Automatic annotation (TrEMBL):
Official protein name in the record: RNA polymerase, sigma-24 subunit, ECF subfamily
InterPro entries hit by this protein: RNA_pol_sigma-70-like, RNA_pol_sigma-70_dom, RNA_pol_sigma70_r2, RNA_pol_sigma70_r4_t2, RNA_pol_sigma_r2, RNA_pol_sigma_r3/r4-like, WH-like_DNA-bd_sf
GO BP, sorted A to Z: DNA-templated transcription initiation
Family indicated by similarity: Belongs to the sigma-70 factor family. ECF subfamily.
Keywords in alphabetical order: DNA-binding, Sigma factor, Transcription, Transcription regulation
Pfam families in the cross-refs: Sigma70_r2 (PF04542), Sigma70_r4_2 (PF08281)
């Protein structure tokens, strides 16, 4: 099963690279295919990172504009999605640095032992449909409270489906630092949701 999934991902990556090369050679329909395939995930990435739909739209459009400008020099040394999200990540950094002089994206976390790439499925196991909905809402709120680097790493992992290695390439930090960020985010989210759920439970 795992091998089949990896094969599917590899086939998708190769298809994206072919489309990008075709677009670089002048095939505009190839760009449209890439745009339709990745527009949803990329837009959600910006919305969740910024919390501002207008800003997210601006950064989203600028990302695709940079893809168009860079098409001629595109190389297949990295997966298209890794390349695309690295552009998005760099635009986000540029925006944050323009607004806030302190670099919120600095690598300020110690590198510790390897961690799982996902939270275990039983961490937020619902007792009912109502609890599931409440905890999902609490989780979204807790994600917004994460430090910027942890939040981005978590969203790239859980929402965009990138591996820790791919995220390390996108944000240009070490694999160990990326795994630490995922681990810290998982721990913080678990504690945050548990605390907020306790508050909800006490109000009943």
């Amino acid at each position: 099963m795992a091998e089949a999934l990896e094969q599917d991902k590899s086939t998708e990556a190769e298809a994206d690279q072919r489309l990008m090369l075709q677009y670089a050679a002048g095939d505009t329909s190839a760009f449209e295919s890439l745009y339709q395939k990745h527009k949803g995930g990329l837009y959600r990435y910006f919305v969740r990172q910024t919390g501002d739909q207008q800003l997210a739209e601006d950064l989203y459009q600028e990302t695709w504009g940079r893809v168009i400008k860079a098409a001629v020099g595109y190389e297949t040394s990295a997966k298209f999605t890794t390349w695309l999200y690295r552009i998005a990540h760099n635009l986000l950094i540029d925006h944050v640095r323009a607004v806030k002089p302190v670099d919120l994206f600095s690598d300020a976390f110690s590198e510790e032992q390897e961690c799982d790439n996902q939270m275990s499925s039983d961490q937020f196991s619902p007792d009912s449909a109502l609890e599931e909905n409440i905890k999902a809402k609490l989780l979204r709120g807790c994600i917004d409270l994460l430090p910027t680097v942890q939040k981005e790493t978590f969203l790239l992992s859980m929402e965009a489906g990138f591996t820790a290695a791919a995220i390390a390439e996108i944000v240009e930090v070490t694999l160990e630092a990326t795994k630490s960020r995922i681990r810290y985010a998982n721990r913080a989210l678990k504690e945050c949701v548990m605390n907020k759920w306790q508050e909800v439970d006490n109000e009943r």
